[in-house]
Amino acid sequence: MKQSEVLIVGAGPSGLVLALWLKAFGVGVRIVDAASGPGTTSRALAVQARTLELYRQLDLAQAVVDAGHPIEFFNLWAEGKHRARIPLGAIGAGLTPYPFFFIYPQDRHEQLLVERLAAAGLEVERSTTLAGFEERGDLVEARLVDGNGREEVCAARYLIGCDGAHSKVRNVMGVGFPGGTYRQVFYVADIEGDSPALNGELNIDLDEADLLAVFATAPQGRGRLVGTVRDDRAEQAETLQFSDVSQRAIDNLMISVRMVNWFSTYRVHHRVAEHFRRGRAFLVGDAGHIHSPAGGQGMNTGIGDAINLAWKLAAVLHKQAPEELLDSYEAERLPFAQRLVHTTDRAFSFLTADGPVAEIVRTGIVPRLMPLVGKLPAAREFLFRTISQTLVHYRTAPLNAGHAGKVHGGDRLPWVQFDGGDNFAPLPRLGWQVHVYGEVGAELATWCALHGVALRRYDWNEACAEAGLARDAVYLLRPDTYVGLAAGTPSVALLDDYLRANGLRL
Predict the structure, then answer these.
(1) CA angle, 173 as apex, 172 and 174 as ends, to 5°?
(2) Cβ atoms of 14 and 286 closer than 8 Å
(3) What are phi and psi of 94, to 5 degrees?
(4) C-alpha angle 193-387-293 in degrees, rounded to nearest 5
(5) Mean per-residue pLDDT for 103-115?
(6) What residue stretches are annotated with the FAD-binding domain (predicted)?
(7) Cβ within 8 Å of residue 118, ≥6 positions away
(8) How many domains does the chain have?
């Protein structure tokens, strides 16, 4: 019987990121996947700013930025007529080191993660499926079947299901997956060709009955088309070819297709698992939540799940925290998934609504209103914060406490620039850290040294105040860089109380 501290089932982006972070924390990991190799189709495209911020902690962000493609403009078409070109550019300037909307196709994304994982000494075990598992005491015994049909048993302290919407892990856990399926059938095609809409920008064409989106995957001549399968052809969705559904794209957006690299039809689902944890088994990514692609949130949410869970598993396995810490994973990520599904559902329903009123709004009012809204600084900031996931917080979860200035425990730390750097610079190794913006007292410095916590002091400036930070306050950052405790001064007693209340030994 093989043994591992953590067994990950599924090697999509969520599973790969989970494995990378666990390896960085020194946890023994095994990762298996039913597929024979990494994905070869682009599938998820968007990499959000919060994901890049988290990637920076393991020196991944720049590799993604160097290989991807920022979206500088949003073009709105209505019934084949170009109606607006809205600049995006650095739409989140001052909020994050990654103030743009960004495209990095999932096939290349996965390959980068696989390479980084291999460099860390861990290979994905391909063509390996999970047949079932049982908890026995403080272990999970999982039955794995390789590509030749040979079965083995792997014992692990924890089992993580990163195995997608049809998750075997979730089924064995017996966790419900309530939700529904939208009536529309969609197609997706990765193409090469010529068109005013293959210009390296985001193009959306609103029609009477549906929509067509073109997401640039290169500065020129390459993109992904997402559109609705119309009329009775939806009944034969499984047998359709690109030529069966492409006429609207060719007519409205003047697309001349040289090559179709990938084509598929699909239905959009909206579901959230009833629980993300049961005993020693956990759900991450699409195994726990699926929703419409509106806003490019799916893959990024799964990556956020993975990083949230990784440091907690490591803390428990290294005996730095009690088993109860793992309950905070569901407490933090499940409510966010539920809110996200609700939000994307409303956006998706608006974009695909039927009826004469919906048609007037979609093809008449929206094309006139969007350019005006796109010029409003407050609207642009709200749009960026929402889509970029920099608004995600865990204020109401029990692991987080206190507030100082406008920053509460559970918040993402506000980003602030200083001469020669910023306050998001990664630690030499993942771990807890204390931030002070102003002066550090001797008692706090001694406390940090005693607990092995990195202490970072930044000179107070106006940007700190604008970000909502409090002068001389103490911000204890968790290993995922969310604020665990925000405290005024004197603060050492509050730090001790926080560790004691959560059973943490740093």
Answers:
(1) 90
(2) yes
(3) 90, -10
(4) 55
(5) 94
(6) 4-343
(7) none
(8) 3
Query: Within this chain, do residues 311 and 242 fall inside the same structural domain, yes or no?
Result: no
Pairwise CA distance, residues 114 & 38, whole Å: 8
- Residue 370 sits at φ, ψ, to 5 deg, of -55, -45
> In terms of Cα–Cα distance, which of 126, 153, 157 is closest to 29?
157
Q: How far apart are CA 359 and CA 429, in angstroms?
A: 54
pLDDT value of residue 269: 87
Domain co-membership, 187 together with 327? no
Q: How far apart are CA 506 and CA 431, in angstroms?
A: 9
Same domain, 113 and 183: no
Query: What percent of the chain shows pLDDT beyond 70?
Result: 96
Q: Where are the beta strands (DSSP E) in 104-234?
A: 129-136, 139-145, 151-161, 179-194, 202-206, 211-216, 222-228
DSSP-derived 3-state class of residue 211: strand
pLDDT value at 356 more than 80:
no
Eight-state DSSP code of residue 326: G
Q: For residue 209, name the pLDDT band (cuts at 50, 70, 90).
A: low
For the chain, the distance separating the N- and C-terminal CA atoms, rounded to the nearest angstrom, is 33
**Cβ neighbourhood burial of 331 (10 Å; 0-12, 13-18, 19+):** middle
Look up the domain containing 382 and give its range: 69-102+179-270+353-392
Q: Is the pLDDT confidence value at 21 over 80? A: yes
- Residue 112: CB atoms within 10 A of its CB come to 18
Cα 411 to Cα 464: distance, rounded to the nearest angstrom: 15
CA distance 280 to 157: 7
Shared-domain flag, residues 422 and 476: yes
Contact 65, 102 (CB under 8 A): yes
Vertex 138 angle, CA 396 and 29, to 5°: 80
194 plus 134 within the same structural domain = no
State the residue for tokens 């996931």.
Answer: 389
What backbone torsions phi and psi does residue 125 show, to the nearest 5 degrees?
-85, 105
Q: Give me 338's structure tokens.
A: 């539920």
